[in-house]
Design brief:
Four Helix Bundle (Hemerythrin (Met), subunit A); 3 domains; 15 strands; 15 helices; 478 residues; alpha/beta; Rossmann fold; single chain
Protein backbone atom coordinates (compact mmCIF):
# COMPACT_ATOMS: atom_id res chain seq x y z
CA UNK A 1 0.00 0.00 0.00
CA UNK A 2 1.49 3.31 -1.13
CA UNK A 3 0.27 6.65 0.30
CA UNK A 4 1.28 10.11 -0.86
CA UNK A 5 2.99 11.86 2.05
CA UNK A 6 2.81 15.66 1.96
CA UNK A 7 5.89 15.73 4.19
CA UNK A 8 8.13 13.91 1.69
CA UNK A 9 6.16 14.83 -1.45
CA UNK A 10 6.18 11.23 -2.63
CA UNK A 11 4.30 7.98 -2.21
CA UNK A 12 5.52 5.82 0.63
CA UNK A 13 4.70 2.37 1.94
CA UNK A 14 2.43 2.31 4.97
CA UNK A 15 4.56 1.25 7.96
CA UNK A 16 2.51 1.35 11.16
CA UNK A 17 4.35 1.84 14.45
CA UNK A 18 2.51 -1.21 15.80
CA UNK A 19 2.21 -4.12 13.35
CA UNK A 20 -1.39 -4.78 12.41
CA UNK A 21 -2.66 -1.49 13.86
CA UNK A 22 -3.00 2.00 12.35
CA UNK A 23 -3.49 5.26 14.22
CA UNK A 24 -5.31 7.96 12.25
CA UNK A 25 -5.99 11.53 13.37
CA UNK A 26 -8.09 13.91 11.27
CA UNK A 27 -8.77 17.56 12.03
CA UNK A 28 -12.53 17.83 12.36
CA UNK A 29 -15.02 20.65 12.07
CA UNK A 30 -15.02 24.01 13.79
CA UNK A 31 -18.66 23.92 14.83
CA UNK A 32 -20.06 27.40 14.18
CA UNK A 33 -22.25 26.62 11.12
CA UNK A 34 -23.70 23.79 9.06
CA UNK A 35 -21.10 21.71 7.24
CA UNK A 36 -20.68 22.37 3.52
CA UNK A 37 -19.87 20.13 0.60
CA UNK A 38 -16.12 20.53 1.25
CA UNK A 39 -16.56 19.15 4.78
CA UNK A 40 -18.54 16.28 3.27
CA UNK A 41 -15.65 15.45 0.93
CA UNK A 42 -13.18 15.35 3.80
CA UNK A 43 -15.40 13.16 5.97
CA UNK A 44 -16.13 10.70 3.15
CA UNK A 45 -12.48 10.44 2.07
CA UNK A 46 -11.23 9.53 5.54
CA UNK A 47 -14.22 7.26 6.10
CA UNK A 48 -13.18 5.31 2.99
CA UNK A 49 -9.52 5.28 4.04
CA UNK A 50 -10.52 3.81 7.40
CA UNK A 51 -12.83 1.29 5.66
CA UNK A 52 -10.10 0.16 3.31
CA UNK A 53 -7.49 -0.24 6.04
CA UNK A 54 -9.96 -2.45 7.91
CA UNK A 55 -10.74 -4.33 4.69
CA UNK A 56 -7.00 -5.12 4.63
CA UNK A 57 -7.34 -6.63 8.13
CA UNK A 58 -5.72 -3.72 9.96
CA UNK A 59 -7.12 -2.47 13.26
CA UNK A 60 -7.73 1.26 12.97
CA UNK A 61 -7.94 3.70 15.86
CA UNK A 62 -9.49 6.75 14.20
CA UNK A 63 -9.76 10.04 16.08
CA UNK A 64 -11.51 13.08 14.60
CA UNK A 65 -12.05 16.07 16.87
CA UNK A 66 -14.52 18.90 17.22
CA UNK A 67 -13.11 22.39 17.65
CA UNK A 68 -15.82 23.62 20.00
CA UNK A 69 -14.22 26.88 21.16
CA UNK A 70 -13.05 29.35 18.52
CA UNK A 71 -13.31 33.02 17.49
CA UNK A 72 -16.01 32.17 14.91
CA UNK A 73 -18.12 30.32 17.47
CA UNK A 74 -17.82 33.22 19.91
CA UNK A 75 -18.68 35.78 17.21
CA UNK A 76 -21.82 33.89 16.17
CA UNK A 77 -22.92 33.51 19.78
CA UNK A 78 -22.54 37.26 20.39
CA UNK A 79 -24.43 38.09 17.20
CA UNK A 80 -27.34 35.80 18.10
CA UNK A 81 -27.40 36.59 21.83
CA UNK A 82 -26.63 33.00 22.81
CA UNK A 83 -23.88 31.27 24.73
CA UNK A 84 -20.92 29.89 22.82
CA UNK A 85 -21.76 26.46 24.25
CA UNK A 86 -25.25 26.55 22.74
CA UNK A 87 -23.83 27.39 19.32
CA UNK A 88 -21.20 24.64 19.50
CA UNK A 89 -23.66 22.01 20.70
CA UNK A 90 -26.19 22.93 18.00
CA UNK A 91 -23.70 22.48 15.17
CA UNK A 92 -22.10 19.35 16.63
CA UNK A 93 -25.56 17.81 16.53
CA UNK A 94 -26.10 19.11 12.98
CA UNK A 95 -22.70 17.76 11.88
CA UNK A 96 -23.43 14.32 13.32
CA UNK A 97 -26.80 14.28 11.54
CA UNK A 98 -25.17 15.16 8.21
CA UNK A 99 -22.52 12.47 8.63
CA UNK A 100 -25.19 9.84 9.28
CA UNK A 101 -27.04 10.97 6.15
CA UNK A 102 -23.84 10.57 4.13
CA UNK A 103 -23.25 7.08 5.45
CA UNK A 104 -20.10 8.15 7.29
CA UNK A 105 -19.28 5.85 10.20
CA UNK A 106 -18.52 7.35 13.58
CA UNK A 107 -14.77 7.61 14.36
CA UNK A 108 -13.35 5.54 17.18
CA UNK A 109 -13.31 8.75 19.21
CA UNK A 110 -14.72 12.24 18.57
CA UNK A 111 -13.15 14.39 21.30
CA UNK A 112 -14.26 17.95 21.97
CA UNK A 113 -11.40 20.38 22.45
CA UNK A 114 -12.86 21.90 25.62
CA UNK A 115 -12.62 18.54 27.40
CA UNK A 116 -8.81 18.58 27.12
CA UNK A 117 -7.84 21.93 28.61
CA UNK A 118 -5.70 20.27 31.29
CA UNK A 119 -3.71 18.36 28.65
CA UNK A 120 -3.21 21.57 26.65
CA UNK A 121 -2.00 23.49 29.70
CA UNK A 122 0.50 20.71 30.50
CA UNK A 123 1.76 20.71 26.92
CA UNK A 124 2.23 24.49 26.98
CA UNK A 125 4.09 24.29 30.31
CA UNK A 126 6.44 21.72 28.77
CA UNK A 127 7.13 24.05 25.82
CA UNK A 128 7.87 26.98 28.14
CA UNK A 129 10.24 24.82 30.21
CA UNK A 130 12.11 23.93 27.00
CA UNK A 131 12.48 27.63 26.09
CA UNK A 132 10.50 27.31 22.87
CA UNK A 133 7.52 29.28 24.18
CA UNK A 134 7.21 32.57 26.06
CA UNK A 135 4.59 34.45 28.07
CA UNK A 136 3.49 38.03 27.35
CA UNK A 137 0.71 39.64 29.41
CA UNK A 138 -1.13 36.38 29.97
CA UNK A 139 -0.70 35.21 26.36
CA UNK A 140 1.67 32.37 25.50
CA UNK A 141 3.40 32.13 22.11
CA UNK A 142 5.44 29.43 20.42
CA UNK A 143 8.76 30.84 19.23
CA UNK A 144 9.10 29.61 15.66
CA UNK A 145 12.84 30.28 15.32
CA UNK A 146 13.51 27.86 18.17
CA UNK A 147 12.28 24.99 16.00
CA UNK A 148 14.81 24.59 13.20
CA UNK A 149 12.61 22.38 11.02
CA UNK A 150 9.73 24.86 10.88
CA UNK A 151 8.35 24.88 7.33
CA UNK A 152 9.19 21.23 6.55
CA UNK A 153 5.58 20.29 5.83
CA UNK A 154 4.76 23.27 3.60
CA UNK A 155 8.28 23.01 2.08
CA UNK A 156 8.98 26.69 2.55
CA UNK A 157 11.52 28.62 4.57
CA UNK A 158 10.36 30.89 7.37
CA UNK A 159 11.16 34.02 5.35
CA UNK A 160 8.98 32.77 2.49
CA UNK A 161 6.20 31.84 4.90
CA UNK A 162 6.32 35.29 6.44
CA UNK A 163 6.09 36.94 3.02
CA UNK A 164 3.10 34.86 1.92
CA UNK A 165 1.16 34.45 5.14
CA UNK A 166 -1.53 36.49 6.80
CA UNK A 167 -0.17 36.92 10.30
CA UNK A 168 -1.53 38.91 13.17
CA UNK A 169 0.49 42.07 13.74
CA UNK A 170 1.40 42.12 17.42
CA UNK A 171 4.45 44.11 18.55
CA UNK A 172 4.68 41.92 21.65
CA UNK A 173 5.64 38.87 19.58
CA UNK A 174 9.32 38.18 18.98
CA UNK A 175 8.55 37.13 15.41
CA UNK A 176 5.37 37.72 13.37
CA UNK A 177 5.16 33.94 12.69
CA UNK A 178 5.10 33.09 16.40
CA UNK A 179 1.67 31.62 17.11
CA UNK A 180 -0.59 31.63 20.14
CA UNK A 181 -0.66 28.61 22.42
CA UNK A 182 -2.80 30.33 25.05
CA UNK A 183 -4.91 33.49 24.78
CA UNK A 184 -5.55 35.85 27.67
CA UNK A 185 -9.24 36.21 28.47
CA UNK A 186 -11.35 39.04 27.07
CA UNK A 187 -14.70 40.21 28.46
CA UNK A 188 -17.54 37.85 27.52
CA UNK A 189 -15.28 35.06 26.20
CA UNK A 190 -15.12 31.51 27.58
CA UNK A 191 -12.20 31.14 29.98
CA UNK A 192 -10.33 28.49 31.93
CA UNK A 193 -7.80 28.64 34.74
CA UNK A 194 -4.13 28.42 33.83
CA UNK A 195 -0.70 29.29 35.32
CA UNK A 196 -0.82 32.45 33.16
CA UNK A 197 -4.26 33.59 34.26
CA UNK A 198 -7.75 33.11 32.89
CA UNK A 199 -7.82 32.39 29.18
CA UNK A 200 -8.45 29.84 26.45
CA UNK A 201 -6.26 27.67 24.20
CA UNK A 202 -5.05 28.55 20.73
CA UNK A 203 -6.39 26.48 17.85
CA UNK A 204 -3.21 24.57 17.02
CA UNK A 205 -2.44 23.27 20.53
CA UNK A 206 -5.86 21.62 20.70
CA UNK A 207 -5.14 19.02 18.02
CA UNK A 208 -1.68 18.16 19.35
CA UNK A 209 -3.07 17.57 22.83
CA UNK A 210 -5.98 15.41 21.66
CA UNK A 211 -3.92 13.40 19.15
CA UNK A 212 -1.18 12.59 21.66
CA UNK A 213 -3.69 11.85 24.43
CA UNK A 214 -5.50 9.19 22.41
CA UNK A 215 -2.92 8.00 19.85
CA UNK A 216 0.45 8.54 21.51
CA UNK A 217 3.43 10.78 20.85
CA UNK A 218 3.97 9.41 17.34
CA UNK A 219 1.02 8.55 15.08
CA UNK A 220 0.84 6.78 11.74
CA UNK A 221 -1.49 8.96 9.65
CA UNK A 222 -2.61 12.57 10.08
CA UNK A 223 -5.11 14.07 7.65
CA UNK A 224 -7.11 17.10 6.63
CA UNK A 225 -7.72 19.53 3.80
CA UNK A 226 -4.82 21.08 1.92
CA UNK A 227 -5.76 24.47 3.39
CA UNK A 228 -4.59 23.14 6.77
CA UNK A 229 -1.00 22.44 5.65
CA UNK A 230 -0.03 25.96 6.71
CA UNK A 231 -0.30 27.20 9.33
CA UNK A 232 -2.32 24.60 11.27
CA UNK A 233 -0.48 21.38 10.53
CA UNK A 234 2.90 23.11 10.32
CA UNK A 235 2.29 24.46 13.81
CA UNK A 236 1.09 21.10 15.10
CA UNK A 237 4.38 19.55 14.02
CA UNK A 238 6.45 22.32 15.61
CA UNK A 239 4.78 22.27 19.03
CA UNK A 240 4.46 18.47 19.19
CA UNK A 241 7.99 17.61 18.10
CA UNK A 242 9.51 20.41 20.19
CA UNK A 243 7.83 18.80 23.20
CA UNK A 244 8.56 15.13 22.60
CA UNK A 245 11.65 15.14 20.39
CA UNK A 246 9.88 12.51 18.27
CA UNK A 247 8.32 12.57 14.81
CA UNK A 248 4.69 13.60 15.36
CA UNK A 249 3.15 11.83 12.33
CA UNK A 250 4.77 9.44 9.86
CA UNK A 251 2.48 10.33 6.96
CA UNK A 252 0.42 13.45 6.24
CA UNK A 253 -2.61 13.02 3.95
CA UNK A 254 -4.20 16.14 2.44
CA UNK A 255 -7.19 16.32 0.12
CA UNK A 256 -7.88 19.07 -2.41
CA UNK A 257 -10.76 21.55 -2.57
CA UNK A 258 -14.29 21.37 -3.90
CA UNK A 259 -15.02 24.14 -6.40
CA UNK A 260 -18.40 25.41 -7.57
CA UNK A 261 -18.51 25.90 -11.33
CA UNK A 262 -14.70 26.04 -11.31
CA UNK A 263 -14.50 28.70 -8.58
CA UNK A 264 -13.50 28.11 -4.97
CA UNK A 265 -16.56 27.82 -2.77
CA UNK A 266 -17.20 31.09 -0.93
CA UNK A 267 -20.12 32.69 0.87
CA UNK A 268 -19.12 36.06 -0.58
CA UNK A 269 -19.51 34.68 -4.12
CA UNK A 270 -22.90 33.19 -3.30
CA UNK A 271 -21.77 29.70 -4.34
CA UNK A 272 -21.69 28.18 -0.89
CA UNK A 273 -23.83 25.07 -0.38
CA UNK A 274 -24.33 23.16 2.83
CA UNK A 275 -25.06 19.46 3.06
CA UNK A 276 -28.32 20.39 4.78
CA UNK A 277 -29.40 22.46 1.75
CA UNK A 278 -28.66 19.64 -0.66
CA UNK A 279 -30.74 17.19 1.32
CA UNK A 280 -33.60 19.69 1.68
CA UNK A 281 -33.63 20.47 -2.04
CA UNK A 282 -33.52 16.78 -2.98
CA UNK A 283 -36.37 15.76 -0.73
CA UNK A 284 -38.07 13.72 -3.47
CA UNK A 285 -35.50 11.02 -2.62
CA UNK A 286 -34.91 9.08 0.62
CA UNK A 287 -31.88 10.36 2.53
CA UNK A 288 -30.04 7.06 1.91
CA UNK A 289 -30.29 7.65 -1.84
CA UNK A 290 -29.09 11.27 -1.62
CA UNK A 291 -26.20 10.17 0.60
CA UNK A 292 -25.05 7.54 -1.91
CA UNK A 293 -25.29 9.99 -4.80
CA UNK A 294 -23.10 12.49 -2.95
CA UNK A 295 -20.59 9.79 -2.01
CA UNK A 296 -20.44 8.49 -5.60
CA UNK A 297 -19.84 11.98 -6.94
CA UNK A 298 -17.21 12.93 -4.32
CA UNK A 299 -15.29 9.65 -4.72
CA UNK A 300 -15.31 9.77 -8.52
CA UNK A 301 -12.23 12.04 -8.42
CA UNK A 302 -8.95 11.20 -6.67
CA UNK A 303 -8.78 12.92 -3.29
CA UNK A 304 -5.65 14.92 -4.16
CA UNK A 305 -7.34 16.50 -7.20
CA UNK A 306 -9.86 19.35 -7.00
CA UNK A 307 -13.43 18.41 -7.86
CA UNK A 308 -16.03 20.70 -9.38
CA UNK A 309 -19.51 20.60 -7.88
CA UNK A 310 -22.59 21.25 -9.97
CA UNK A 311 -26.12 20.06 -10.43
CA UNK A 312 -25.02 18.22 -13.57
CA UNK A 313 -22.35 16.28 -11.66
CA UNK A 314 -25.00 14.95 -9.28
CA UNK A 315 -27.18 13.95 -12.23
CA UNK A 316 -24.29 11.93 -13.66
CA UNK A 317 -23.67 10.30 -10.28
CA UNK A 318 -27.35 9.39 -9.88
CA UNK A 319 -27.45 7.94 -13.39
CA UNK A 320 -24.31 5.88 -12.73
CA UNK A 321 -25.79 4.42 -9.56
CA UNK A 322 -29.09 3.69 -11.33
CA UNK A 323 -27.16 1.22 -13.50
CA UNK A 324 -26.01 -0.73 -10.44
CA UNK A 325 -29.49 -0.96 -8.96
CA UNK A 326 -31.03 -2.05 -12.26
CA UNK A 327 -28.52 -4.92 -12.18
CA UNK A 328 -29.42 -5.80 -8.58
CA UNK A 329 -33.09 -5.96 -9.56
CA UNK A 330 -32.31 -8.34 -12.41
CA UNK A 331 -30.14 -10.53 -10.18
CA UNK A 332 -32.90 -10.71 -7.55
CA UNK A 333 -35.26 -12.01 -10.23
CA UNK A 334 -32.94 -14.87 -11.11
CA UNK A 335 -33.75 -18.23 -9.55
CA UNK A 336 -30.20 -19.13 -8.60
CA UNK A 337 -28.59 -20.64 -5.55
CA UNK A 338 -28.61 -18.31 -2.56
CA UNK A 339 -24.97 -19.05 -1.79
CA UNK A 340 -22.82 -18.02 -4.77
CA UNK A 341 -19.99 -20.28 -3.62
CA UNK A 342 -16.27 -19.73 -4.02
CA UNK A 343 -14.91 -17.01 -6.28
CA UNK A 344 -13.52 -18.17 -9.60
CA UNK A 345 -10.56 -16.67 -11.42
CA UNK A 346 -12.57 -13.92 -13.06
CA UNK A 347 -13.92 -12.68 -9.74
CA UNK A 348 -10.52 -12.84 -8.08
CA UNK A 349 -9.14 -10.71 -10.92
CA UNK A 350 -11.75 -8.03 -10.31
CA UNK A 351 -11.08 -8.03 -6.57
CA UNK A 352 -7.34 -7.80 -7.25
CA UNK A 353 -7.90 -4.87 -9.64
CA UNK A 354 -9.89 -3.05 -6.96
CA UNK A 355 -7.19 -3.61 -4.37
CA UNK A 356 -4.50 -2.47 -6.81
CA UNK A 357 -6.41 0.79 -7.34
CA UNK A 358 -6.92 1.41 -3.63
CA UNK A 359 -3.37 0.36 -2.72
CA UNK A 360 -2.18 3.14 -5.01
CA UNK A 361 -2.87 6.10 -2.70
CA UNK A 362 -6.55 5.22 -2.19
CA UNK A 363 -7.50 5.80 -5.82
CA UNK A 364 -11.28 5.70 -5.46
CA UNK A 365 -11.80 6.91 -9.03
CA UNK A 366 -10.11 3.77 -10.38
CA UNK A 367 -11.89 1.71 -7.74
CA UNK A 368 -15.24 2.92 -9.05
CA UNK A 369 -14.04 2.02 -12.53
CA UNK A 370 -13.58 -1.56 -11.35
CA UNK A 371 -17.14 -1.55 -9.96
CA UNK A 372 -18.39 -0.59 -13.42
CA UNK A 373 -16.38 -3.43 -14.99
CA UNK A 374 -17.95 -5.90 -12.58
CA UNK A 375 -21.40 -4.53 -13.42
CA UNK A 376 -20.82 -4.91 -17.16
CA UNK A 377 -19.57 -8.48 -16.72
CA UNK A 378 -22.55 -9.34 -14.51
CA UNK A 379 -24.95 -8.00 -17.13
CA UNK A 380 -23.27 -10.09 -19.82
CA UNK A 381 -23.57 -13.19 -17.61
CA UNK A 382 -27.27 -12.74 -16.78
CA UNK A 383 -28.49 -15.08 -19.54
CA UNK A 384 -25.46 -17.26 -20.27
CA UNK A 385 -24.34 -17.94 -16.69
CA UNK A 386 -26.86 -16.70 -14.08
CA UNK A 387 -24.91 -18.19 -11.19
CA UNK A 388 -21.87 -16.16 -12.19
CA UNK A 389 -23.94 -12.97 -12.31
CA UNK A 390 -25.07 -13.68 -8.73
CA UNK A 391 -21.43 -14.12 -7.68
CA UNK A 392 -20.50 -10.87 -9.37
CA UNK A 393 -23.38 -9.10 -7.65
CA UNK A 394 -22.14 -10.32 -4.26
CA UNK A 395 -18.60 -9.15 -5.10
CA UNK A 396 -19.91 -5.77 -6.21
CA UNK A 397 -21.68 -5.33 -2.88
CA UNK A 398 -18.62 -6.52 -0.95
CA UNK A 399 -16.08 -4.12 -2.41
CA UNK A 400 -18.70 -1.40 -2.81
CA UNK A 401 -19.05 -1.50 0.98
CA UNK A 402 -15.50 -0.09 1.27
CA UNK A 403 -16.62 2.99 -0.66
CA UNK A 404 -20.07 3.08 0.95
CA UNK A 405 -21.69 2.51 -2.45
CA UNK A 406 -24.24 0.06 -3.89
CA UNK A 407 -25.39 -0.88 -0.39
CA UNK A 408 -29.15 -0.42 -0.75
CA UNK A 409 -31.65 -2.90 -2.12
CA UNK A 410 -33.23 -2.10 -5.47
CA UNK A 411 -36.55 -1.66 -3.63
CA UNK A 412 -34.98 1.15 -1.56
CA UNK A 413 -33.59 2.88 -4.63
CA UNK A 414 -35.60 5.39 -6.66
CA UNK A 415 -35.08 5.58 -10.41
CA UNK A 416 -36.70 8.97 -11.01
CA UNK A 417 -34.51 11.66 -12.63
CA UNK A 418 -32.38 13.80 -10.36
CA UNK A 419 -33.71 17.32 -9.86
CA UNK A 420 -31.99 19.78 -7.57
CA UNK A 421 -32.26 23.57 -7.22
CA UNK A 422 -28.81 24.58 -6.03
CA UNK A 423 -29.06 28.35 -6.24
CA UNK A 424 -29.63 29.77 -2.77
CA UNK A 425 -32.02 32.44 -4.10
CA UNK A 426 -34.13 30.01 -6.12
CA UNK A 427 -36.24 26.92 -5.63
CA UNK A 428 -36.30 26.06 -9.35
CA UNK A 429 -35.52 22.49 -10.25
CA UNK A 430 -34.67 21.29 -13.78
CA UNK A 431 -38.30 20.60 -14.68
CA UNK A 432 -39.33 24.13 -13.66
CA UNK A 433 -36.43 25.62 -15.63
CA UNK A 434 -37.36 23.74 -18.81
CA UNK A 435 -41.00 24.82 -18.39
CA UNK A 436 -39.97 28.48 -18.10
CA UNK A 437 -37.71 28.21 -21.15
CA UNK A 438 -40.61 26.81 -23.21
CA UNK A 439 -42.89 29.54 -21.89
CA UNK A 440 -40.36 32.17 -22.93
CA UNK A 441 -40.02 30.69 -26.42
CA UNK A 442 -43.81 30.92 -26.79
CA UNK A 443 -43.79 34.52 -25.54
CA UNK A 444 -41.17 35.47 -28.13
CA UNK A 445 -43.14 33.79 -30.92
CA UNK A 446 -46.14 35.89 -29.86
CA UNK A 447 -43.88 38.98 -29.68
CA UNK A 448 -44.70 39.38 -25.98
CA UNK A 449 -41.34 40.94 -25.22
CA UNK A 450 -42.29 42.05 -21.69
CA UNK A 451 -43.15 38.47 -20.72
CA UNK A 452 -39.98 37.22 -22.40
CA UNK A 453 -37.83 39.66 -20.41
CA UNK A 454 -39.64 38.81 -17.18
CA UNK A 455 -38.87 35.11 -17.60
CA UNK A 456 -35.26 35.89 -18.56
CA UNK A 457 -34.86 37.82 -15.28
CA UNK A 458 -36.46 35.02 -13.28
CA UNK A 459 -34.08 32.48 -14.78
CA UNK A 460 -31.10 34.78 -14.22
CA UNK A 461 -31.88 34.82 -10.50
CA UNK A 462 -31.69 31.01 -10.59
CA UNK A 463 -28.24 31.18 -12.19
CA UNK A 464 -29.46 30.42 -15.73
CA UNK A 465 -28.20 32.48 -18.67
CA UNK A 466 -30.36 32.64 -21.80
CA UNK A 467 -28.66 33.03 -25.17
CA UNK A 468 -30.93 33.81 -28.16
CA UNK A 469 -29.24 32.73 -31.38
CA UNK A 470 -29.61 34.33 -34.83
CA UNK A 471 -31.37 31.23 -36.19
CA UNK A 472 -34.13 31.67 -33.62
CA UNK A 473 -33.02 28.87 -31.31
CA UNK A 474 -32.34 29.39 -27.60
CA UNK A 475 -29.39 28.11 -25.58
CA UNK A 476 -29.42 27.90 -21.79
CA UNK A 477 -26.29 27.89 -19.68
CA UNK A 478 -25.78 27.51 -15.97
Amino acid sequence: MQIYNTLSRQKEALKPHTPGEVSLYVCGATVYDHCHIGHARSAIIFDVIRNYLEYKDLRVRYVKNYTDVDDKIIARAEKEGRSWREVADQFIEAYDRDMARLGVREPTLSPKATAYIAEMVQLIEDLISKDVAYVVDGDVYFEVHQFEQYGKLSHRKTDDLLAGARVEIDPRKRNPLDFALWKNSKPGEPTWESPWGLGRPGWHIECSAMAMKHLGKSIDLHGGGEDLIFPHHENEIAQSEATTGLEFASCWIHHSFVTIDHEKMSKSLGNFFTVEEIFQKSSQFPESVIGEVLRFYLLSTHYRSPIDFSRESLKVAKSGLDNFYVLFQKIDEIEAVADPGEMDGDLKRFQSDFETAMDDDFNTAKGIGVLHEIRLEANRALKKDPKKSVKLGHLLKKIGRVLGLAQLSHEEWRYQPWALALDASSTLDDIAIQSLVKERVAARLNKNWAKSDEIRDQLAKAGITIEDRPDGSTRIKR
